[in-house]
Amino acid sequence: MSSNTKVVVFKAKELLYTGIFLLLGIILILLLIFMFLPKDNEKEPAVSTETDAVYVPGVYTSSVQLGENTLDVQVTVDSQNIKSVNIEQLDDSVKTMYPLIEPSIASINEQLSKISSIDELTFEDESQYTNTILKQAIKNALKKAEP
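Predicted structure:
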């Protein structure tokens, strides 16, 4: 039984170079795979245009009839949000006859930053009627603000 034993001698330099080239080849293949693989979660960049606007920025008014008095509800909007709600022509006689108007406007202005729609406004039980009237006036003013 004669067996031919072959001894292969590698130089350390050749092994080192082979390992480095093998590692670079694997990195190159992975890089090419990640670069050219289609991405499922790629979306169009969110660029705000005028067609995305919810409102035309400005100040819009709507009238409210309270007894014999007419009040103008003034709504300030930007392209996406309602900024503030105010009442114009609010004199002392109206404040006396309808004392819940000013607290209701203050409550609405506090809630504007927390809500996404005017329908999400919440009201206290004692000022439900006043707030309903103001809410409808705000909706009427917002109709004018639509593009």
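Summary: Strands lie at 58-66, 69-77, 82-88.
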